[in-house]
Each structure stands twice: as C-alpha cells, then as structure tokens.
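BUG: 3D viewer hangs when loading the predicted structure for this chain

Environment: internal workstation, default settings.
Expected: structure renders.
Actual: progress bar stalls at 90%.

Input used:
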Amino acid sequence: MPTTRTAEKEMRAAERRQARNKSIISQTKTSVTKAEATIAAGNIDAAKEDVKSAISTLDKESERGKVHRNNAARRKSRLMKKLNQAVASSKETKETIEKPKKRVSKKAAQTE
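Structure tokens produced before the viewer hung:
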C-alpha cells in the first residue's frame, strides 16, 4: 500500500489510466482476432478489409503508447504474412479449378 499522499494519488491515476487503456487494448485484440478468423475462413476480400482495419488499430495504439511499437510491428507482420499466404493459396486453387490441363495424344491432335 502507498505510504505517502502523492503515492496514493499516483495509484488512483494509474487505475484511471488502466481502465481507459483496457477498452482500447481489448478492441485491438478483437480486431486482430476477427482478421485472423476471416483469413482462416478463406474469404479473401473481407480478410483484406479486416486486416486493414486491424493494422490501423494497431498503429493508433502504438502511437498513443498503449503498446510498444515493436510489438505492434510484429503483430502487423504476422497478420500480413497470414493474409499473403491465404491469397497465394487461393490463386493456386483458382488456377487449378479454372484452367484444368487437357491431355491430348499426338494422334488425336493430328486428326483434328
């Protein structure tokens, strides 16, 4: 427990700051989780929008000093890595679905 009046006052101020920061940090975690879930679902267009908003939220949080800038950078990097992998895998599946390779023998090609 604080022993001086100034320590008591600082403790009250810290509690107010903690209450204010808690909602902001919770909102950031929610936006990152939502973006990750959208990526996992495979909805690329919606995932891009969710990742964009999550990155924006992380930037704001780091600018305000609620989280360390390297922490925000690391989390943004992980999100983008997941999104890029999902986009790459969706392109591969689109190519195989849209453009199946048709095998034609040489004799069949000559008769046509």
